[in-house]
Design brief:
Blueprint (H helix, E strand, L loop, with lengths): L4 H36 L8 H33 L20 H7 L1 H20 L7 H27 L23
Pfam family, one: HIG_1_N
Subcellular location: Mitochondrion
Organism: Basidiobolus ranarum
Length: about 190
Amino acid sequence: MSPSQQQLSGYQDSAVKGAVVGGLAGLAIGGLGLLVGPRFAPKLQTLSVPLKTYWVGSAVAAGAVINGERAYQAYDADVRRGAISNNGTVIPQEDSESTTSMSEFVAEHRYGIIGATWVAGMVVSGFYLSRQKYMTFSQKLVQARMYAQAITIIALTATAGISMVNKDETPRRIPDAYREKKAWEM
């Protein structure tokens, strides 16, 4: 079974819509950081225009790529579970009482958990180190980064262990219709 043209255009449409929404969110976050940032870090005012543009552009690009990929994967999950038919129309699904276990939640959201752990580690260690009066700001920043890095490695190891709990389940196999054929398979 190969994907229909409507499904392929649905993949592209969902990825583009997600990328546009993510790019706008990145523009808002990057612009807000550029406007509010100098209040907390006065050296941000001395940045040149190309560096400020790079700051906002990086936020836009990151938001577009991340949200576009999420939208693509959500559409793919709908196609795979049968919520979208071969002609691209949405089939209403019955609400199934599926309880997700902790290991399934961690396996599905592991990158968000790791990123949030890093941010929380930076914030908590930054507050802790801000009371040290004999350290310079750069020393405090390096120490906070090291603490956050250690916490992130612990979280990375924990999420890998938790997501491997259900390893006895059969792995999800990509159907041949969705797999790109190599030159020797033609």
